[in-house]
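does this look right to u?? zinc ion version
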Amino acid sequence: MPTSSRDRKTLLRNGLIVDGTGRAPRPGSVLLDGGRIAAMGDLPQEAATTIDCSGKVIAPGFIDAHSHMDFFSVSKDPHHFDSFTAQGVTTFVAGNCGFSPFGFAPQTKHRGLLENSLFKAGTDALNWNTFAEYREVLEGLGLTHNFLHLVGHGAARTSLSGFEARPLSPAEYAQMLNLLDRALSEGAAGVSLGLQYKPGVFAKLEELDDVAHLVKRHDKLLTVHAKAYSSFSGTYPMVPFGRAHNLKAIDDMLGVARRTGVRLQFSHLIFVGSSTWKTVDEAIDLFDRAIADDVDVCFDMFPYRCGATLLNTLLPEWFMARMPDALRSPLARARLWVEAEVGFRTVGFGYEQMQITNACSPEYDEHNGRFLPDIAARVRKSNFETMLDILDKSNIEARGLFHRYYNDEIIDRLMRHPAAIFASDSWPEPGGHQNPAAYGTFPRFLHIARERGNISLESAVHKMTGSAATRFRLNERGRLEEGYAADVVVFDWNAVADGANESGDAAPSGVEHVFVNGEPILEAGQVRAVRGAGEVLLS
Ligand SMILES: [Zn+2]
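got this back:
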């Protein structure tokens, strides 16, 4: 363990304080002492490590309000987090989209499915079940950043019935609720749903209501990766001239919140495909009306037009339920082809927008980073055949970056919305092409605010600090205030920006110093991976 941050004293001198509340910037200094913010304002020079911050912004450390990095914190390698440190991130809200690395039934036969989830970091086994046990492992290893954890409904359900497309038995149902209840009692901040992934996709609305009631009883947060983010999605039945599926998914979840009174966080509000972009007005209107009716709902977003996902999220529920046999059934393939053609055309999304980042198979890995039509041309197959072949060879684990999740106008508009909280929804891929969001999200938000002027500096900082802290009830974090935890970032407002390169892993610029609980983890732009700097935050 390093010299404890508890003994460190650092004076951040003569900067521009943007305190995370949304208040206008003001000149001043910030003294970090014993892991806390000891003083702020016009401070005298004293016996402390002093950093000249003139011309620089001093702000609370950034909170990644939608993260999947909990799967990486049990890894032996602390450098998985370097790209986030370089952005100024000090705290992650993890366990999203139904996936958490705990909350499992002890007798589970499905540990393999849980370990091989979308976010797995190498070959690390998940040899524990409860949040308390997971926390013990983390505290033994020492965290590099602060973590707030949600427990995944999908994880609990997978540990009971695997990916079986069936309702849970009454005994399993009760046990699932018990597993979630236990994690919440042990300090998890809420429950996450992943309704586009197996097995969340098989859960009916009544089940979601029961989970929401449980969360409400604990007065915690329900987060949801919704059932659809495009106007047409295989997760809902095809009804000609029916309601756009992404709007239906918002209706469903606002319905859960209205019926149960649960506090709801709608995860990564994206609009997949150019046709879905026409529903933005109505989607925002749905949220605004719910908020006007006192429904406690916010959403999170990222600043890239593309996002990372599993290739299999494209598959309709009926096909997923019959995997892997469906891949070899000519009838199922024919039906899928028709639905894909109709679906892609309806949504304004297609093979051209699918970039394979990690094919997860020796046969296709050389194509990582390429768009699907390019790969298809190289392997001399149709786009459709290539997509299914990649799914098959990867054991349906292939990952991609899908484009047309947003356009710039939607990003600008959502950033201005009072219910928007900023997040990366990203993780570094163990191999292949990288998601730029894991390398540049927070600098990019700031860069957009500066270049496009859609929101002010203090508002941008608020949405990645104080606003997220309030939403997730992070005690004494997310703001620069005397007595608060010394999670702090120093950046150059005139230079801060994400980078761009061919492989998606360009470093950002303009972020200079980062402290977690007073411990420097970025010094003059140099990342330090410090075990024990971060804490498990309990709720
Ligand atoms: Zn998600």
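The longest helix spans residues 330-347. idk if thats expected tbh
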